[in-house]
UniProtKB/TrEMBL annotation:
Homology family: Belongs to the 2-oxoacid dehydrogenase family.
Any one GO molecular-function label of the UniProt entry: dihydrolipoyllysine-residue succinyltransferase activity
Region (Disordered): 180-210
SUPFAM superfamilies documented for this protein: CoA-dependent acyltransferases, Peripheral subunit-binding domain of 2-oxo acid dehydrogenase complex, Single hybrid motif
Residue ranges the record marks as coiled coil: none
Cofactor(s) this protein requires: (R)-lipoate
Designated name of the protein: Dihydrolipoyllysine-residue succinyltransferase component of 2-oxoglutarate dehydrogenase complex
Ranges annotated as biased composition (Low complexity): 182-202
Pfam hit, one: 2-oxoacid_dh
Domain spans labelled Lipoyl-binding: 2-77, 103-178
Residue span(s) of domain Peripheral subunit-binding (PSBD): 208-245
Catalytic activity: N(6)-[(R)-dihydrolipoyl]-L-lysyl-[protein] + succinyl-CoA = N(6)-[(R)-S(8)-succinyldihydrolipoyl]-L-lysyl-[protein] + CoA
């Protein structure tokens, strides 16, 4: 029985994609849901799984070919034993057998939901080193987390295919373990069956080139000016880079940078150090700038007398730790107070989706945590349903794993509101930036003794400034001020939380 492999749904308003890589060739046996090929759209990479177990027959759309939604990619003969057609072999990345023993490929592990690429941060071993099974070989960095890659088998690291700084795709090959390095050079790219589309004229706007093309350009030492892009709006695809490697075009004059760096004196330049931004730092920078560019961000301030919380904490902290095995901190009080206020002002817990407002009848609380690699925001799911002890345990555990770089992508997704505590670093006042697509973020600050007037008397009280940044497109000033006042009231008299007042 012949089964058709077709282009899946690519996403809203996306009507076509380019076939980037075939992981199988005609005649290969495939299992159900095994990845057959990878498609690239203007923004994302889409993997196409096998709809059934069997043998891959004809590849209809070769690498580099543009295909529409539901277009035929290949045929599959269901069941074992189907012979591959003699003609139309697809280009395959063949590998010669290792000499003196079986070679084992070291592949990029699963990176997390929607994560398609990573950067090789550190190799702990070098070519020729003997490695034990499950011994750490290298560390990869994604947009949010670090991923360690263990050795799949014991042997000798015979070849490193992705050195430090290389961008690798999900399911890509990192290295080879065996008795000797026997990897053959990648086969020369076959010319596309169909005529290549005419090069697109420059549109003058930013074009995001295919991730696989960017990786290959970095490996071959090419710049985008040296490659003729044939994708939409002049987008460079992997096939374009491979053509440029075979027949490099004359080097073009380098284009001026969009924001050139100011001239630096020679004696100063000699004392500078240039370090490439990590993927995490690049993502933080992009998301923060996107938040400023997208949201109508505004910040409102208030202050809270922490006497009530501190007295309650001092009275019960020993008993609390003895019973629950975790220290009673301030974060559980602030989380409870925010959940209480979000029920009264639900738009602060909502998000904008096009022309709709999506209200959340739950609170997934993001707790910003500083790490040596940068700021990350683990999410406490259903924080409004958790007790003080449950909150303290989960906040402490996720904070510890964040500092160790052990958080998964899933643990940092889905937040509806965020709390950021700059006070642990000594910050007295700041304006936090929204964590898109959320509409609100609360900034905590340093607790400082200040003279306050209470009942006509000047007394010394432990005070903290609070800052609520919010998206003014969805949250009005009245709602923002009301939210902050409710948080202040709940913290100054924690009994209100018990009475739901």
């Amino acid at each position: 029985m012949t089964i058709e492999v077709r282009v899946p749904t690519l996403g809203e308003s996306v009507t076509e994609a380019t076939v980037a890589t075939w992981f199988k060739k005609p005649g290969d046996k495939v299992a159900v849901d095994e990845m057959l090929c990878e498609l690239e759209t203007d923004k994302v990479t889409v993997e196409v799984p096998s709809p059934a177990a069997g043998t891959l027959g004809e590849i209809v759309a070769g690498e580099g070919q543009t295909v529409g939604v539901d277009a035929l990619l290949a045929t599959l003969s269901e069941g074992a034993g189907a012979a591959a057609p003699a003609a139309a072999p697809a280009p395959a990345k063949a590998e010669a057998p290792a000499k003196g023993g079986a070679a084992v490929d070291v592949m990029v592990p699963t990176l997390g939901e929607s994560v398609t690429e990573a950067t090789v941060a550190t190799w702990f071993k070098k070519v020729g080193d003997t490695v034990a099974q499950d011994e750490m070989l290298c560390e990869l960095e994604t947009d949010k987390v670090s991923v360690e890659v263990p050795a799949p088998a014991a042997g000798v690291l015979s070849e490193i295919l992705a050195p430090e700084g290389t961008t690798v795709q999900a399911s890509g090959k990192l290295a080879v373990i065996g008795g000797a390095s026997g990897a053959a050079a990648p086969s020369s790219p076959e010319p596309a069956a169909a005529a290549a589309p005419a090069p697109a004229a420059s549109t003058g706007k930013d074009v995001e080139h295919a991730p696989s093309a960017q990786k290959l350009m970095a490996e071959k030492g090419l710049t985008p000016d040296q490659v003729q892009g044939t994708g939409r709006d002049g987008r460079i695809m992997k096939e374009d880079v491979m053509k440029a490697v075979v027949a490099p075009a004359p080097a073009a004059a380098p284009a001026p940078a969009a924001a050139p760096r100011a001239p630096v004196a020679a004696e100063d330049a000699a004392r500078e150090e240039r370090v490439k931004m990590t993927r995490l730092r690049q993502t933080i920078a992009k998301r923060l700038k996107d938040a400023q560019n997208t949201a109508a961000m505004l910040t409102t301030y208030n202050e809270v007398d922490m006497t009530g919380v501190m007295e309650l904490r001092n009275e019960y902290k020993d008993l609390f730790e003895k019973k629950h095995g975790v220290r009673l901190g301030f974060m559980s009080f602030f989380t409870k107070a925010c959940c209480h206020a979000l029920r009264e002002v639900p738009e602060v817990n909502a998000e904008i989706d096009g022309t709709d407002i999506v209200y959340k009848n739950f609170v997934h609380m993001g707790i910003a945590a500083g790490t040596p690699q940068g700021l990350v925001v683990p999410v406490i799911r259903d924080a409004d349903q958790k007790s003080f002890a449950e909150l303290e345990k989960e906040i402490a555990e996720k904070g510890r794993r964040a500092r160790d770089g052990k958080l998964s992508m899933a643990e940092m997704q889905g937040g509806t509101f965020t709390i950021s505590n700059g006070g642990v670093y000594g910050s007295l006042m700041s304006s936090p930036i929204l964590n898109p697509p959320q509409s609100g973020i609360l900034g905590m600050h340093k607790i400082q003794d200040r003279p306050m007037v209470v009942n006509g008397q000047i007394v010394i009280r432990p005070m903290m400034y609070l800052a609520l940044s919010y998206d003014h497109r969805i949250v009005d000033g009245k709602g923002a001020v009301t939210f902050l006042v409710r948080v202040k009231e709940a913290l100054e008299d924690p009994r209100r939380l018990l009475m739901d007042l």
